Amino acid sequence: MFLAYASAQGCTFLDCRLYLPEDWFDAAHAAERARCAVPAELRFQTEPALGLSLVRGALERGALPVRWVLADETYGADPKFLDGTAALGGPRGPWYFVEVPVSTRVWVGAVAVEPPGPGPLGRPRTRPRVVPGTARAQEVRRIAAVLPASAWRRCRIQEGAKGELAADFAFLRVTRARRGGRPGPEAWLVLRRGLTPDARGKRPLKYFLSNAPWDCPRAELARLGGARWPIEVAFEEAKGELGMDHYEVRSWRGWHHQMTQTFLAHHLLLRLRVRGEKPGADARPGQGAPGRRAARAPRAEPRPGARHRPLPSGTELRRLSRAREADRRPPQTPKAA
């Protein structure tokens, strides 16, 4: 389980959790836990619960400005993750923007709600309910199937390996349905439909829920529909260049040691890219005396939505190391033959 942070300057990793199956916490696996040095106080947690703890920890530390929390369908399927993430934010965010399964049920628009009170047989109701006679909540895939063509609009997504991407979007204000048909909070339902048909000839369709306020610009919601691309790139960089998944560990500490090293290496590469250093680039003629770096003009702040540039590759990093080593060596005094 990983928590990453993305901004206009790039994306890198903040934290991680090692998920252990529930079976590992029974008495039969006590010896296995001890052999792998799993902390004795550790208790089973679902993936969404671990994800919520990662987000909560990052927000409590308060070291980074956070406006949005993004997650995939695994987390969007868990109401506790959505409610827990919403409770961490305030009027100015952070707000969640989470992919949800096609079977997620919502009401389009607001619904009339009866507060808790006396029940029809005298037993009090402890939870709110929709007014009797209200139509049942619908699955999001059913809602998308009957939307007219006028409900869709084409929007550009800034991130992309080959430049700007585009997709068709539909935006609806909905009311989330909880278990038993109880009403939940209002939210944005964002539908993103790709432009290129898949192998079955259908355009892929994804569904997102967000607790952003009603006046949140739709262009911002559309941008978030592709905002996870830098995170995918960070994983490719960490696995392909830094060996994130190249390990054979058998202990709790060993796995976390591997992840910590990967995070630090990725932070270093990202810092080099943000500073604009070119691996292997020595001083050129006219840029100053040998052995001294030429002065650089201050770098302008990146534009919001600027394209994500890849980190230096492993080959470039080795060139950079050799160049830095050459800079650190003392100058050689010419000797007479």
What is shown here, in short?
30% of the residues lie in helices and 21% in strands. Strands 3, 4, 5, 10, 11, 12, 13 and 14 form an eight-stranded mixed β-sheet that branches. A two-stranded antiparallel sheet has the order 1-2. A two-stranded antiparallel ribbon has the order 6-9. The radius of gyration is 26 Å and the shape is globular.
Distance between the termini: 63 Å
Outline type: globular
Proportion of residues in extended strands: 15-25%
Q: Quote the average pLDDT.
A: 83
State the share of residues found in helices, binned by percent: 25-40%
H/E topology pattern: EEHHEHHEEEEEEEHEEEEHHHH
Uncertain stretches of 5 or more adjacent residues: 280-308, 317-329, 331-337
What characterizes the major β-sheet?
A: 8 strands, mixed
Structural class: alpha+beta
Radius of gyration: 26 Å
Number of helices: 9
| Number of DSSP E strands | 14
